[in-house]
């Protein structure tokens, strides 16, 4: 995980360019760049008071340096800005600005102190995040090597491009010995180099960024330095590996930042955003807009918190979990993951377009690069433990429900079934359903060849495709729960048969869990003669006994 990983990001396809288009009216000319209405497609924060003009830059170049960029200084005419800017992150509504006694949370007290030492910091002298563990982690980080990265869907056809990454691990690595289909691993990812460089420059920390820095606490505080912060490290190390500088700041963070604004108007606005009175504006202009601390520091130029305060108020930079999308590759000492490349667009207070922290990091890697993983504590969402049900694994009937990248664990499940089928020489397979959803299968059908082969070979007995945005406008939208609703009565008889099928649902769709629950309970009433209460009781019992298992996120 070197600082150069984003330097090589010049390629979401190796030819993609990220133009900066600046279209300014007379009104815009008097705004600082933070408030101008313009298209920005950048991969790094804009230095306060400047705009970038790099019409043919690649993504990677934005992470290398701020040098060579044409800058233009804006007049800071606050009164004019307030007159022409609509309510947003920087300027609130008249109603909120007229509240005299804002109800703000109590500001937490500072308790950490720092000391610059003479020598440069050697990052090899400390463990990742000081060796501190976190909930869900099993054991220490272990090294993997990037074996391959392959695009499996791309813009502009899809909203969230997806890619496959295979990581090779040492055959003797003990952390991989208990792997089972459906398991996940945490990927350790650093903050983007450009974000870190901006913070160092913005807070006047560049000159001492690489020196040893000692963190202690005030003796009367009764507190300790966070366990994930090495006692002696460097400011650059802290910002790169320990603090989450991308997460949307909560109201307590904004409350603390307000204390470091020398401009009374900026302080007032931050107090508005963290106040009870301004909760709606906080939700609209901070939470929903996906604002980061960097965005705030660009917009609120007089805010200059010390590094010690950032250590206190910013959350820990935690690894991101990904589910392994293959079983067969495990025998070759490789894990495969499918990743959606997340992107936050520059608008509504977000100063620069950026990719998801971990997905962008993984996409920037090249074959041979090193990545660290941590085993994620096994959940209930693993290959069916049918041995506990007095039947063999190969005989376990199963219903798999997966929109989008939720297909990942089921590819591992089905490959595992194929292995078991070949071992026992099975001739009669149980029913194995896959309800698979995509917005448009013509534009995105990830792992199509593999899925169709599993179906052709009989490993997967039933494949139900559900398309929410079909090309043919006369074709109705169909989500995975609609696919369930379209099944005949025989399917629901199957759900109540012996041996009882396992139902697994996995996906990154908001509200999917609730919709599945409602759909199944309604269908039980329709097809099985149950009352609504009886339907809910059955689903509750299935969930309790691990026959209905979900892994849903948003």
UniProtKB/TrEMBL annotation:
Biological processes annotated in GO: homocysteine metabolic process; methionine biosynthetic process
Region Disordered, residue ranges: 30-58
Matches recorded under InterPro entries: CysJ-like_FAD-binding, FAD-bd_FR_type, Flavoprot_Pyr_Nucl_cyt_Rdtase, FNR_nucleotide-bd, NADPH_Cyt_P450_Rdtase_alpha, OxRdtase_FAD/NAD-bd, Riboflavin_synthase-like_b-brl
EC number assigned by the record: 1.16.1.8
Keyword list, A-Z: FAD, Flavoprotein, Oxidoreductase
Cofactors that this protein relies on: FAD
Record keyword Oxidoreductase present: yes
Residue ranges, compositional bias (Basic and acidic residues): 30-41
UniProt KW Oxidoreductase keyword: yes
Classification via PROSITE patterns: FAD_FR
FAD-binding FR-type domain span: 139-384
EC class name: oxidoreductase
GO molecular function per UniProt: [methionine synthase] reductase (NADPH) activity; flavin adenine dinucleotide binding; FMN binding
PANTHER family linked: METHIONINE SYNTHASE REDUCTASE (PTHR19384:SF84), NITRIC OXIDE SYNTHASE-RELATED (PTHR19384)
Name of the protein described by the UniProt record: Methionine synthase reductase
Organism name: Bursaphelenchus xylophilus (Pinewood nematode worm)
Source species taxonomy: Eukaryota, Metazoa, Ecdysozoa, Nematoda, Chromadorea
């Amino acid at each position: 995980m070197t600082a150069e990983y984003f330097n090589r990001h010049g390629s979401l396809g190796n030819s993609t360019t990220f133009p900066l288009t600046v279209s300014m009216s007379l009104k815009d000319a008097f705004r600082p760049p933070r408030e101008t209405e313009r298209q920005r497609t950048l991969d790094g924060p804009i230095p306060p008071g400047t705009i970038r003009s790099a019409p043919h830059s690649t993504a990677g170049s934005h992470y290398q340096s701020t040098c060579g960029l044409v800058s233009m200084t804006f007049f800071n005419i606050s009164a004019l800005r307030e007159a022409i800017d609509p309510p947003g992150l920087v300027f609130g509504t008249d109603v909120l600005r007229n509240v005299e006694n804002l109800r703000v949370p109590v500001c937490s007290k500072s308790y950490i102190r720092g000391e610059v030492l003479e020598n440069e910091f050697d990052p090899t002298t400390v463990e990742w995040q000081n060796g501190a563990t976190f909930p869900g982690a099993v054991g220490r980080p272990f090294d993997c090597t990037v074996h391959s990265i392959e695009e499996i869907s791309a813009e502009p056809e899809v909203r969230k491009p997806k890619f496959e990454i295979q990581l090779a691990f040492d055959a003797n690595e003990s952390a991989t010995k208990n792997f089972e289909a459906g398991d996940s691993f945490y990927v350790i990812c650093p903050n983007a180099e450009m974000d870190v460089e901006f913070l160092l420059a913005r807070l006047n920390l560049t000159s001492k960024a690489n020196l040893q820095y000692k963190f202690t606490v005030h003796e009367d505080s009764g507190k300790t330095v966070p366990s994930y912060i090495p006692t002696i490290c460097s400011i650059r190390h802290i910002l790169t590996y320990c603090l989450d500088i991308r997460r949307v700041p909560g109201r307590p963070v904004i409350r603390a930042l307000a204390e470091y604004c020398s401009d009374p108007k900026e302080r007032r606005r931050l107090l508005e955003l963290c106040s009870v009175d301004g909760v709606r504006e906080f939700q609209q202009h901070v939470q929903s807009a996906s604002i980061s601390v960097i965005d705030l520091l660009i917009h609120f130029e007089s805010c200059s918190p010390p590094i010690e305060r950032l250590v206190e108020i910013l959350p820990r930079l935690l690894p991101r979990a990904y589910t392994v999308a293959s079983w067969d590759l495990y025998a070759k000492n490789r894990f495969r993951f499918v990743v959606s490349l997340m992107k936050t667009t520059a608008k509504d207070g977000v100063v620069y377009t950026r990719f998801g922290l971990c997905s962008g990091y993984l996409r920037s890697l090249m074959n041979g690069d090193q990545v660290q993983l941590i085993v994620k504590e096994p959940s209930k969402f693993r290959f069916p433990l049918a041995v506990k049900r007095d039947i063999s694994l190969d005989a376990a009937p199963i219903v798999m429900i997966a929109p989008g990248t939720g297909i990942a664990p089921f590819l591992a499940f089905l490959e595992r079934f194929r292995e078991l089928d070949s071992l026992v020489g099975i001739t009669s397979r149980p029913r194995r359903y896959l309800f698979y959803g995509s917005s448009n299968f013509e534009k995105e059908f990830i792992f199509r060849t593999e899925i169709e082969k599993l179906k052709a070979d009989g490993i997967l007995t039933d494949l139900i495709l559900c398309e929410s945005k079909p090309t043919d406008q006369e074709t109705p939208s169909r989500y995975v729960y609609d696919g369930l609703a379209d099944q005949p009565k025989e399917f629901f008889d199957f759900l109540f048969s012996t041996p009882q099928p396992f139902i697994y649902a996995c996906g990154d769709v908001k509200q999917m869990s609730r919709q599945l629950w409602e759909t199944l309970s309604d269908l039980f009433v329709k097809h099985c003669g149950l009352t609504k209460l009886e339907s809910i009781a059955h689903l509750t019992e299935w969930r309790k006994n691990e026959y209905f298992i979900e892994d849903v996120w948003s």
